[in-house]
Amino acid sequence: MHLKDMKKIQNKGINRLAIEFLNHQAANDFVNNERLKNKGYNIFIPYNFISCKGLVRYIDLDIDISKFSEICRSNVEIISAKKLNRKVLTNNKPEYIATGSVLFTFKGTCLPKFIEFYGLALPVTIYIPPVTQCFSCLLYGHTKHNCKGKLKCFNCGEKNTIIMTRIRIHSLA
After folding, report:
1. In terms of pTM, does the model score above 0.85?
2. Cβ contact 86:116 at 8 Å
3. What residues contact 92, with CB distance under 8 A and at least 6 apart?
4. What is the per-residue pLDDT across 103-146, written as a single tens digit (0 to 9) for each?
5. Residue 60 in contact with residue 122, Cβ under 8 Å?
């Protein structure tokens, strides 16, 4: 099979490849190739290659999130909007408090400089997600639910260490 307008092939792990094309049409043709689909290959374009996320601050807390698509205007198509909450501990119980920040997902990879919100131009800043750390192997980029690494001690970092808690037993006698 001939891959037209292919730029680069990279090995991404066991049974995984990343293929980069010179243009979007060649990439779409490859993704929609019936011959490869019939052979059982799972071909997709990663979501971060077709969308980007931006943060808009100082939006009124009383505005319903479902109306954001009607209220907000941008030169880049808005895919979704989500209000962000802040986690606060009150009496050792987590409580989520609404903030004035809204996370927008835009179509394409170009972030707009601003969105129009009720006639106001609010700046859009790039969204940097929090760092994800696995509490099983202590590596970054995944969680313990899909971890394939070896268990490490959170205190010392050694492999296969079982953390034991000392319990004092008081006799009633």
Report:
1. no
2. no
3. none
4. 999 998 899 999 998 888 999 999 998 888 888 888 898 888 88
5. no
